[in-house]
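Design a sequence for this backbone.
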């Protein structure tokens, strides 16, 4: 800069050597690099205060839950043909709120009854569907009962089958519970009450681009 009497002065700044100082002396002048942070879905970024030293950016994972519940006690009788799925409409459709990899956990309480003196079997199988199509690998045998020829009184059984798996879903995907019967000689049902629940739950565990395997 120009001073008195036409003299020129040069000022060389002193750069603080602190490790948190981002100021750098470059050949063309002082440089403070800009910072841009992009967060994928499910990640939250908290910026530091302007006076913080060092400037610490905090990144957190915002996990999500989704549920499909059967809110009241009840029974859904399976009346279709063998191995023909029907939707258990009492369980609410589970809508996926965020794209990514989800851990899915569902449980189904089933009942199977064979009448007296009837040879054969009665079973309940369940599965989850994604947007109307079965999710391969989500099937579970819930309960089954059999009896041989000449058997005496009726036979019945109840049980809760469950399955846990990971799968990629897009935001807005709809997950529904379905079941079918095997055997037409007795009755087959899906049940929900305080003795055993039927429900779907899912937990978001990874962003888009992650894989479930």
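Sequence:
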């Amino acid at each position: 800069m120009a001073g008195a009497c036409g003299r020129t002065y040069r000022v060389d700044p002193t750069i603080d050597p602190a490790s948190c100082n981002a100021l750098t002396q470059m050949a063309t002048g002082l440089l403070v690099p800009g910072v841009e942070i992009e967060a994928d879905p499910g990640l939250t970024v908290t910026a530091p205060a302007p006076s913080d030293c060092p400037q610490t950016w905090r990144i957190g994972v915002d996990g999500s839950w989704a549920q499909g519940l059967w809110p009241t006690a009840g029974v859904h009788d399976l009346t279709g043909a063998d191995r023909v799925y029907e939707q258990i409409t009492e369980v609410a459709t589970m809508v996926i709120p965020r794209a990514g990899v989800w851990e899915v956990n569902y449980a189904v309480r089933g009942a199977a009854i064979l009448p007296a003196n009837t040879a054969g079997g009665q079973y309940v199988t369940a599965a989850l569907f994604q947007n109307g199509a079965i999710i391969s690998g989500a099937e579970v045998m819930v309960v089954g009962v059999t009896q041989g020829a000449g058997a005496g009184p009726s036979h019945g059984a109840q049980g809760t089958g469950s399955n846990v798996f990971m799968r990629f879903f897009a935001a807005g995907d709809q997950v529904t519970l379905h079941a079918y019967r095997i055997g037409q000689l007795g009755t087959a049902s899906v049940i929900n009450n305080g003795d055993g629940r039927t429900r779907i739950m899912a937990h978001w565990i990874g962003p888009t681009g992650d894989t479930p395997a």
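The chain has no helices and 16 strands.
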